[in-house]
Amino acid sequence: MPRKKPFSVKQKKKQLQDKRERKRGLQDGLRSSSNSRSGSRERREEQTDTSDGECVTHHIRRLNQQPSQGLGPRGYDPNRYRLHFERDSREEVERRKRAAREQVLQPVSAEVLELDIQEVYQPGSVLDFPRRPPWNYEMSKEQLMSQEERSFQEYLGKIHGAYMSEKLSYFEHNLETWRQLWRVLEMSDIVLLITDVRHPVSIGMRLGKQEEGERFLWG
């Protein structure tokens, strides 16, 4: 075998420089690919989803989306109960960022932090839990599903018609989630309601008033 020729200092520097360039190019390619996938995912989330329980006039962000090639062997959809929240626009996100940088928070008394629930949930307010429309066992599955879908779309329409998006907090837009709640309440004699410790009354009272005749245990 021919004897290896030793590298000069100049050749060694050139070799290390080429190696760094190749490594940098590989990292840039991976970063570009990652950004492309992230952007593509965001664009897909921003697209309007017309599945059951979603308002077709608003952008919906679908959380916990599971990879799926359609329905499973038993007709099971792994994304049936995924969370559906309205997606904030980029303009709204930037506006909030600017406001957070410009506004200086000042300490306030405990009395100022108190809020009368009647100021938020006024009688007849559209800010309520969606109710299951009347039904009976003579209805077909298609009739029942269609009636619930129509009622839920009316519920969403009233909320978005009365309030601008920036005035609303996150709430579930997936009808399948509410369908499960309706069915559980209908079958249950006692319901244990676990609420946010910051707003237990505002959450529990509305649901308790709506489901008259149910006994609620708060936790």
TrEMBL record:
It comes from Phyllostomus discolor (pale spear-nosed bat). It comes from the Eukaryota. This is Putative G protein nucleolar 1 (Putative). PANTHER family: GUANINE NUCLEOTIDE-BINDING PROTEIN-LIKE 1, LARGE SUBUNIT GTPASE 1 HOMOLOG-RELATED. InterPro entries: GNL1-like. Residues 15-26 have a biased composition (Basic and acidic residues). One of its GO terms (molecular function) is GTPase activity. Residues 1-14 have a biased composition (Basic residues). Residues 1-80 are annotated as: Disordered. Keywords: GTP-binding, Nucleotide-binding.
